[in-house]
Amino acid sequence: MALSPMDSPRSVPGPAKTLAAKTKALAVQNAASSPLSSGASTPTEGTMDLAEQMNDQTRKQFVTGARLGEGTYAIVYAGHYRHDPTRLVAIKKIKVNADYKDGVAMDAIREIKYLQELSHPNIIKLHAVFSTKDQNLSLVLEHLPLGDLEQLWKNKDVRYGGADIKAWACMLARAVWFCHKNFVLHRDIKGNNLLIAADGNVKLADFGLARSFADPFRPMTYNVITRFYRPPELLYGARYYGGAVDVWSMGVVFAELALREFFLPSETDIQQLSVICDVFGTPTEETWPGVSKLEFYTPPSNPSSRPQPLQFWRARFGILGDDGIELLRAMLTMDPKRRLTAQQVLEHRYWTNAPRPTEKEDLPKNGGGAKVMGEDLKRRGGEIESGRADKVARKLFG
Amino acid sequence: MRYTEDEVYRASSQFRLWSFTAEQLAAQRAETNKAAVERVKAAVHRQRAQRQKESVTGSESERNGSGVDNQAVNGVQKEVEYLTVAEEQKIVNHLAETLIKLGEHFRFPVEVVATGIQFLKRFYLYNSPMTYEPQLISRSSIFLANKTENHHLTAEKYAAGFPKTTAEQILAPEYLIIQALRFTFDVRHPFRGLKGGHMEMMAMAQGQGIAPEAHGRTAAEMQAEMLYLPVRVGGAQNRMTPEELASRITTAYTKASSILKHAAILTDAYFLYTPSQIWLSAHLIADEPLTAFYLSTKFPSPPTSSPQYNKLLTTLTFCKKLLLSHHSLSPSNSSASSEDEMKAKEAEQAAGIGALIKKLRHCRDPDKIDLVKLNKAVKRDAVQDGQLEEQKAKRRKMEREGFKKEADSFWGPELPKKE
After folding, report:
1. Which residues form the Cyclin-like domain (chain B) (predicted)?
2. Cα distances (Å, whole numbers) of residue A382 to A147, A308, A397
3. Could you tell me if A132 and A157 lie in one domain?
4. Chain A, 131-190: which have a CB under 8 Å from a chain B CB?
5. Distance (Å, rounded) from C-alpha A129 to C-alpha A308?
6. Where are the domains of chain B?
7. By CB neighbour count within 10 A (0-12 exposed, 13-18 middle, 19+ buried), where does A397 fall?
8. Which residues of chain A have pLDDT under 50?
9. Annotated catalytic residue within A148, A164, A188, A376
10. Active site residue A215
């Protein structure tokens, strides 16, 4: 059929033949009838270039199992290594976005770019990447079956104390420190991007909004980080920033672990700022030099909010102890220049003071299971679980 | 625990997947070339056999057709001349240079151009220009580099910058490139290192340098020593004013920076050396006594007694040699050769490339010529193989749910299950 004169390669010149099925048919025909083709190797091997062969080898190392979740951005499957079914993985298959006219999605590029570089016990491991025949990229990620930190504090069946919070927060702080040490800004730190491994380790995931530190005077977008976790400078439109933005988010996660509810929830960006100012006071040039030069800054109306006193913190965050409260407030300093760096966070005495952080194998566990991991991994950065309108408007670049 | 820059670099994909010895690099290129030649050969044979068969079928169907046609087809069968590794490299390097000009034209930041060129060079480590048209690949590489380096540019706007080029053509080879890059996008450049070194030298010149404590040199001592650096290695001491020293450091920086933007990205330096080795070598070319002094402040005095220092210097010398081998740094280029001579040389080079491109035209893989169609075909096949089924399944599920809803509205919904 493939060789009927109507369908012959002469009438459809050149590459149309490379439709895989057709090529195969041709090759088979040739092998049967023409001595010339005996020089060619097997048809599929022959049409694959070196890079395709390498990709194929990678793909064959894994077995894809049940679908765990599907989002707008990706589908997540359970999977395992072919040679060892006990070595579990999660396979995140990036969907092709028909609305995005510029090729492979930026989220996928960012996530792959940074996970390829970052190898740390508290950062989700990227085992491999391969592409499938339909040109979808698949990320083979670490299997993290025990849910995430947000579910943990939401789950009323799980009881935990100050030593447990210290252990979780410390693992988060290490992950953030490691990113910054590698000049990577995560830009979407939040409870449901912090997944929990079978051994109790906390792993920072979702690098779809990450980028390298910019060179001085190169502007970046302020439209990053899920709103509840977004620091005031970004809400004011800062375009030059560094690791401090992640430290703020880390502070909010730390606070949520202690409170077991959202610490700074809001409905809009404007409201987010007022929620922050209610707790920390409205910033002025005295408390935060340079703040008035930020694009969306408006001077405080009368009466302006004043920062909450120490009693407020003691009443709500007593579980952290005085040194924990001190660390929390230092992470949540309005002025990003005076906010602790990730390094300074790790050097704080809270970690070494009593109580000792719980050993990770003794930490209270969630019954989340693989299903939750699927839900967490399928999301695109900046999305909140409900997936309603409170997505950050995602700039594709910057 | 200490976490050193060495450890950071050793974990990078650039080190893990894209660093080679000169021998490994040559061997890989030879293997790629060999594989490509075999593929093209096989494809050409297949095509010829196909044509032969067609003409046979054709003559059978139309009895009056003569066999002359058939013979003519056979008569064209000349043995194809394939590109050698060296010729492939010439073509790729030529396109890399074109990318620098392209970057200037589009005003791309330097790291976009540098990354794009490394993508191109990495791509052609595992692919041959005989398989994939290098100009298309080079244009797409730099588009991809814009994305990975956070520089906003739409495919449409970019494509509009070329004659008769569509966004589709720019995007068609993207997956091929990503696959050949082995899914790594991070390229570590020497630019920031050079800037940092420059700032450090400026601080030393102002008496604010910091040397490792064990080395026993104070900031003032370093400054004093620096003010007497000879112009040339082994030259006489030469007392400079602080202003002269500062301007010398800046001149060295400017020259080194230009080397990094040309020779460093156009040679194999990124495959063979680390970013710090590359910027130090470029600086060594720019001002040897100054760079030697800078290096000496990092080791206990005298530095020559440290095996590490000697090892480093050997590596830097090799890297320097590689950079100097690039024509942008060849003496005939910079010395006062007449403009005519330069032009003649350029014309000669252009003619050489022209001949290679002509040669390439005759040995291209016929299966891989139209990447846009190829790209579409791959996607279409996939849809036929699996996705269609998925869509069907989805539609059926929706229909089922629709029936259920209708049933519910008639019979009332199912009773809630008991907990």
Report:
1. 97-179
2. 18, 29, 14
3. no
4. 131-135, 137, 181-182
5. 48
6. 27-73, 83-187+347-379, 191-332
7. middle
8. 1-45, 384-398
9. A188
10. no
Query: Annotated binding residues of A for ATP, as ranges?
Result: 68-76, 92-93
Residue A132 placed within a domain:
yes
Q: What digits encode the pLDDT tens for the residues A129-187? A: 998 877 789 999 999 988 899 999 999 889 999 999 999 999 999 999 999 999 999 99
A324 CB-near residues (< 8 Å, 6+ apart): A162, A165, A166, A258, A317, A350
Contact B186 A102 (CB under 8 A): no
CA neighbor of B130 nearest in space, from B378, B370, B362? B362
SS3 content of chain B, % helix, strand, coil (to 5): 75, 0, 25
Which position has the token pair 């509009």?
B160
- How does pLDDT run across B3-55, given as a tens digit for each residue? 888 899 999 999 999 999 999 999 999 999 999 899 888 888 887 887 777 76
What's the average model confidence in pLDDT over B328-332? 73
CATH number 3.90.76.10 given to B83-187+347-379: no
Enter the ipTM. Answer: 0.81
Give chain A positions within 8 Å (CB) of B61: 5
Domain that holds residue A331: 149-397
Q: pTM value?
A: 0.83
User: How close, in Å, is residue A141 to chain B by CA atoms?
Assistant: 14
Contact A203, A376 (CB under 8 A): no
* B195, amino acid identity: K
Identity of the residue numbered B299 = F
Reading the block at residue A135, the tokens are: 């040109």
A212 with A123, same domain: the answer is: no
* Pair (A91, A159) in one structural domain: no
- What is d(CA B57, CA A100) in angstroms, rounded to the nearest whole number? 47
Same domain, A295 and A370: yes
pLDDT tens per residue, range B67-106 = 333 434 444 556 778 899 999 999 999 999 999 999 999 9
Residue of A33, A36, A180 for testing the chain B interface, max B β-carbons within 10 Å:
A36
Which chain A residues have a beta carbon less than 8 Å from that of B373?
Answer: 14-16, 18
